[in-house]
Description:
five-stranded antiparallel beta sheet, 24% helix
Amino acid sequence: xxxxxxxxxxxxxxxxxxxxxxxxxxxxxxxxxxxxxxxxxxxxxxxxxxxxxxxxxxxxxxxxxxxxxxxxxxxxxxxxxxxxxxxxxxxxxxxxxxxxxxxxxxxxxxxx
Length: 112
């Protein structure tokens, strides 16, 4: 997703006219059209950030988030890296998708 789109969506979310409780949470949404649209956008963003291993593998040995799946179909998220044609991390089941780590929190300059 382009940084412009991310910037626009972030700006919409930080708009004080929106209800913070209902953005992206259909259970508490009061039916406001903008909140519904933003919830859909964030659901799509979250899903689109995952890259199936059948499409592409990481090009570097940096840590990434991975989704693995058990024989019973349970999906779990782990921190891992891909090196020498195999995944390395705490997972014990096959990796089905991965995504880069998010940008670390910056915060205020007075935070330790």
